[in-house]
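User: Please predict the structure of the protein below. I'd like the answer in structure-token form so I can feed it into my own downstream comparison script.

Assistant: Understood. Taking the following sequence of 299 residues as input:
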Amino acid sequence: MYWATKSKPVPLSEIGWINTTYLASTSLRCDPMLVWGTTVDTEELESFLEEQRSRNRTMLTPAHVLVRAVAESLRQHPEVNRRVIGKKVYQYEGVNIVMPMLQTSTGEVDCVFMRNAEDYSLDEIAGFFWESAREKSMQVARDKKRVKEGSTFKNALINLGRWLRLSWILHTSKVGFTAGNWLRAPTIWPWQQGLNHAGAFVNYLGFSGAPPLIAHKPASLPLNAYCIAVTMGATEKRPVVVDDKVVVRKQASLFVRLDHRMVNGNQSAAFINTLRGFLMHPQSLVQQSEDAEVQKRAA
């Protein structure tokens, strides 16, 4: 059991009057979220991934770099790494991230929770998600094997349990969302982590066959846990202006949804600039991890 947030709320004086106004509207029917769309130059990202793949045994992808960049950006901008409970704002203990993962064999989407993501290096993040993907694939293989066995008493019990769980989610989620939005509770069960104690929702939509991402409005559940949602699209060649000349460069769309009850436009811009910097120059993420490791050893 652990507490995902600090025990004392953030003072209103630190939040500011505009954000406090949005905070006061929590119980009203309004949308306090702001979405900032921008682009990222991925020329260095492409070459960085090729270099890392040839040097290391771990298969790195843009999704892994995105998770590492979000984690480090939230560490540097703690004012974004918060959540609303009731009409108070609480600071998260560490950077907790949820990322959806598609099971290609079934079409189901599972969410993977990573606690204290800021403590993971890029290679460790890749290893964590590849291991999660392996475990999910093994579970799918076991389910397929069970289906082939036909109607057995064991399968009937498993199917009944699945039906009961889905029915429970359908009929109790509203109560759970309401309680999670108004009560500060410790994390006891694993299902609490991804739903109510993850500060950042990170989504990479650059999978094979994905259409160009021009505009994006991140969907959101009626809960206050996700202080931020970051979505990145696939890399594509686009005309851009460099030194007053139109050239073709590799670009990716980036959309960030933030909670105006905690951050204003200037704070949002500062965070996004940091995030874009890491994505455009991913080698700096490796340097950040190496510096952190040196500091740990020195301590």
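That's the full token string. The first helix runs from residue 12 to 15.
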